[in-house]
Specification:
four-stranded antiparallel beta sheet; three-stranded antiparallel beta sheet; about 30% strand; signal
């Protein structure tokens, strides 16, 4: 099937628009319903430590990548300190846009790509 120049342009615009909708920024909230006192978005592709003690939930974004392996992440949780020194618990997830309830006694979090490893605290 051959496309005319205007049709190719329209298809390109649609492809660009679908990529622009992708969201990789999670937000931590004080309540368990992802609705109160949302923090600044944090990129789930950045494995840096997040000291978000006392938070009740985190909204995981919809990256637009579907259920591919590239869209699997792990939320690593540390109970004992705010420096992500180890993994007390974790949750492997596909970033499809949902609210994850947290334990407010957890001290720090980090996101990593792929599946979670075994706990080591």
């Amino acid at each position: 099937m051959m496309f005319t120049a205007p049709a190719r342009f329209a298809l390109t615009l649609i492809a660009v628009a679908s990529v622009a909708k992708a969201d990789f920024f999670a937000n931590f909230f004080d309540d368990a319903a992802c609705s109160q006192n949302g923090g600044i978005g944090v990129d789930i592709r950045n494995p840096g430590c997040l000291g978000e003690a006392g938070r009740g939930s985190v909204f995981i974004p919809n990256t637009g990548l579907g259920t591919t392996d590239d869209n699997q992440f792990c939320l690593v949780i540390t109970h004992g300190d705010g420096s992500c020194s180890c993994q007390s618990s974790s949750n492997t997830f596909t970033a499809t846009g949902f609210c994850k309830v947290l334990d407010p006694s957890d001290q720090s979090y980090r996101f990593i790509s792929g599946a979670c490893a075994a706990n080591n605290c």
